[in-house]
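Spend some time on the protein that follows and explain the fold to me:
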Amino acid sequence: MSQDRHGAPAEPGSQWYDNEAGPLVRPYAMTGGRTRPGPSGVRFDLIALVTLDPAGPGADDAPLGPEHRALIDLCRIETQSVAELAAGADLPVGVVRVLLGDLLELGCVTVHRPVPPAQLPDERILREVIAGLRAL
Protein backbone atom coordinates (compact mmCIF):
# COMPACT_ATOMS: atom_id res chain seq x y z
CA MET A 1 0.00 0.00 0.00
CA SER A 2 1.29 3.47 -0.84
CA GLN A 3 1.88 6.16 1.74
CA ASP A 4 1.13 9.86 1.72
CA ARG A 5 3.80 12.51 2.33
CA HIS A 6 3.37 12.15 6.11
CA GLY A 7 3.96 8.39 6.05
CA ALA A 8 0.33 7.40 6.67
CA PRO A 9 -1.30 4.83 4.37
CA ALA A 10 -2.91 6.57 1.41
CA GLU A 11 -6.49 5.88 0.37
CA PRO A 12 -6.82 4.29 -3.09
CA GLY A 13 -7.60 6.98 -5.67
CA SER A 14 -6.47 9.84 -3.43
CA GLN A 15 -3.34 10.59 -5.45
CA TRP A 16 -2.90 13.44 -7.87
CA TYR A 17 -1.86 12.17 -11.25
CA ASP A 18 -1.29 15.67 -12.57
CA ASN A 19 0.78 18.03 -10.44
CA GLU A 20 -0.58 20.96 -12.41
CA ALA A 21 -4.24 20.12 -11.71
CA GLY A 22 -4.56 22.46 -8.75
CA PRO A 23 -7.74 22.78 -6.72
CA LEU A 24 -11.00 21.64 -8.27
CA VAL A 25 -14.20 23.48 -7.37
CA ARG A 26 -17.43 21.86 -8.46
CA PRO A 27 -20.03 24.12 -10.10
CA TYR A 28 -22.58 23.48 -7.34
CA ALA A 29 -20.08 24.76 -4.80
CA MET A 30 -19.76 28.07 -6.69
CA THR A 31 -23.52 28.56 -6.66
CA GLY A 32 -24.23 27.20 -3.19
CA GLY A 33 -26.13 24.28 -4.72
CA ARG A 34 -28.54 26.57 -6.60
CA THR A 35 -29.46 25.91 -10.20
CA ARG A 36 -31.75 28.89 -10.81
CA PRO A 37 -30.79 32.56 -10.58
CA GLY A 38 -32.23 34.39 -7.58
CA PRO A 39 -35.57 34.05 -5.82
CA SER A 40 -37.25 36.10 -8.55
CA GLY A 41 -36.58 33.34 -11.11
CA VAL A 42 -34.94 35.65 -13.63
CA ARG A 43 -33.91 33.88 -16.82
CA PHE A 44 -30.84 35.03 -18.70
CA ASP A 45 -30.78 34.40 -22.45
CA LEU A 46 -27.36 33.59 -23.91
CA ILE A 47 -27.46 36.82 -25.91
CA ALA A 48 -28.73 39.04 -23.06
CA LEU A 49 -26.31 41.94 -22.59
CA VAL A 50 -24.82 42.51 -19.14
CA THR A 51 -23.47 45.92 -18.13
CA LEU A 52 -21.80 47.00 -14.92
CA ASP A 53 -24.14 49.40 -13.11
CA PRO A 54 -22.16 52.54 -12.24
CA ALA A 55 -24.77 53.52 -9.63
CA GLY A 56 -24.64 50.07 -8.02
CA PRO A 57 -22.58 49.11 -4.98
CA GLY A 58 -18.85 48.69 -5.52
CA ALA A 59 -17.43 45.19 -5.75
CA ASP A 60 -15.66 45.78 -2.44
CA ASP A 61 -18.88 46.75 -0.66
CA ALA A 62 -20.73 43.50 -1.34
CA PRO A 63 -19.90 40.02 0.02
CA LEU A 64 -18.88 38.41 -3.27
CA GLY A 65 -17.00 35.27 -4.14
CA PRO A 66 -14.10 35.13 -6.60
CA GLU A 67 -16.37 34.04 -9.43
CA HIS A 68 -18.68 37.02 -8.87
CA ARG A 69 -15.66 39.34 -8.92
CA ALA A 70 -14.39 37.75 -12.15
CA LEU A 71 -17.72 38.50 -13.84
CA ILE A 72 -17.63 42.09 -12.57
CA ASP A 73 -14.09 42.49 -13.90
CA LEU A 74 -15.19 41.23 -17.31
CA CYS A 75 -18.15 43.65 -17.33
CA ARG A 76 -15.82 46.55 -16.44
CA ILE A 77 -14.07 46.17 -19.78
CA GLU A 78 -17.24 46.34 -21.91
CA THR A 79 -20.85 45.21 -22.14
CA GLN A 80 -20.91 41.48 -22.79
CA SER A 81 -23.46 38.78 -23.44
CA VAL A 82 -24.06 35.96 -20.98
CA ALA A 83 -22.32 33.55 -23.39
CA GLU A 84 -19.26 35.83 -23.64
CA LEU A 85 -19.07 36.12 -19.85
CA ALA A 86 -19.20 32.34 -19.49
CA ALA A 87 -16.38 31.94 -22.00
CA GLY A 88 -14.31 34.77 -20.50
CA ALA A 89 -14.65 33.45 -16.94
CA ASP A 90 -14.19 29.83 -18.08
CA LEU A 91 -17.36 28.80 -16.22
CA PRO A 92 -20.40 26.78 -17.29
CA VAL A 93 -23.28 28.93 -18.56
CA GLY A 94 -25.61 27.60 -15.84
CA VAL A 95 -23.21 28.78 -13.15
CA VAL A 96 -22.83 32.18 -14.80
CA ARG A 97 -26.62 32.59 -14.90
CA VAL A 98 -26.90 31.92 -11.16
CA LEU A 99 -24.01 34.26 -10.34
CA LEU A 100 -25.46 36.99 -12.56
CA GLY A 101 -28.75 36.61 -10.69
CA ASP A 102 -26.86 37.36 -7.47
CA LEU A 103 -25.17 40.39 -9.02
CA LEU A 104 -28.48 41.64 -10.42
CA GLU A 105 -30.16 41.39 -7.00
CA LEU A 106 -27.28 43.30 -5.40
CA GLY A 107 -27.60 46.01 -8.05
CA CYS A 108 -24.07 45.49 -9.38
CA VAL A 109 -25.14 44.82 -12.99
CA THR A 110 -27.99 45.60 -15.36
CA VAL A 111 -29.28 43.17 -17.97
CA HIS A 112 -30.74 44.16 -21.31
CA ARG A 113 -32.74 41.34 -22.77
CA PRO A 114 -32.82 40.83 -26.53
CA VAL A 115 -35.84 42.01 -28.47
CA PRO A 116 -38.10 39.07 -29.34
CA PRO A 117 -38.26 38.43 -33.10
CA ALA A 118 -42.02 39.03 -33.08
CA GLN A 119 -41.43 42.64 -31.97
CA LEU A 120 -38.84 43.44 -34.63
CA PRO A 121 -40.03 45.57 -37.55
CA ASP A 122 -40.97 43.78 -40.74
CA GLU A 123 -38.16 43.67 -43.33
CA ARG A 124 -40.54 44.95 -46.02
CA ILE A 125 -41.23 48.11 -44.00
CA LEU A 126 -37.51 48.71 -43.48
CA ARG A 127 -36.85 48.37 -47.22
CA GLU A 128 -39.62 50.88 -47.96
CA VAL A 129 -38.13 53.35 -45.45
CA ILE A 130 -34.68 52.98 -47.03
CA ALA A 131 -36.15 53.47 -50.50
CA GLY A 132 -37.99 56.58 -49.28
CA LEU A 133 -34.80 58.01 -47.76
CA ARG A 134 -32.85 57.39 -50.96
CA ALA A 135 -35.59 59.19 -52.93
CA LEU A 136 -34.98 62.33 -50.88
About this structure: Residues 93-106 form the longest helix (14 residues).
